[in-house]
Amino acid sequence: MPLFDGRSPESRTRIFYATDVHGSERTWRKFLAAAKFYHADVLVMGGDVMGKLVIPLIREPNGHHRATIHGRVERLETAADVERAREVIRSLGFYDVVMDDDEYRTVRDDPAAIDELWRRLAVERLAHWIELAEDRLGPDGIPCFVSGGNDDLLEVMETLPAEGTRSFVACEGRVVRLAGEYTMISLPYVNPTPWHTPREASEDDLAAMIARAVDGTTDFGKVIFNFHAPPIDSTLDTCPMLDATTNPPSQIVRGGQPVLYGAGSSAVRAAVERYQPLLGLHGHIHESQAAARLGQTLCINPGSEYGEGVLRGALINLSNGTVESYQMTAG
Fold it and tell me: Quick one: which of 129, 151, 178, 132 has its CA closest to 318?
């Protein structure tokens, strides 16, 4: 049977993997649609599902609204203008909220209130995404495994249901069965970054987390590592080097060119090389779409262009305990 023609036979498991959607409504909907479009048996979302910013739509005394999107103040005179702005904001991965000018000024001057609003909107969007997954995937029995990443707050991710749903499965920090034949282990933490994101850990701590996660696992030939951090110096982690002494961190340039380096994790690479799982699913470094073998393990980072509304992914066929084939996708 041709590789991407029709649904997988029973002996083959077809995974569609994507990562780093960062709150983008458009990208999440494309992710769910990928199950039918690519005839996938399983969907896996690898992390960083929360958005990073709240954009208020401020109601003015004359009934109009204003919103600052990408640094430009947009004047919204009609309800249709407001709705279009909300769609743009959600597609970009941000959260939108309508408020009066007085309320906006009160919240703006209270960091705790901003933080609480951001968390509440993040939980609400994830709840909406779960409903979409259940509605679109549940009737066909297609499981959707979702893990967080370094940008996702633990307290928000803990609101995701691990059980009791037809399709949606929160899998970070858990060992789950995938297609009945494979075991997937998910780890949201990454090695330290210049951005000081919520879930970073030293390489020693990452190594300890991985050791605990794989404890009791014996047959790594049918194990999938869904680790948000890519292995260091694997081509899955190549990105510009940043100067962490500036705020925000800035690119280091030499000879007029950005300095590139491997920003991945040495602990993750050591674990892949030691345990040799069947497959490594990684993300975190958006600009480094790549696939590479570390020993017998195929490691994949599909990259991310969520801000442009583009869903990058990887379609992976597993058959009889082997990676039969894979293909990078974008759409």
Answer: 178
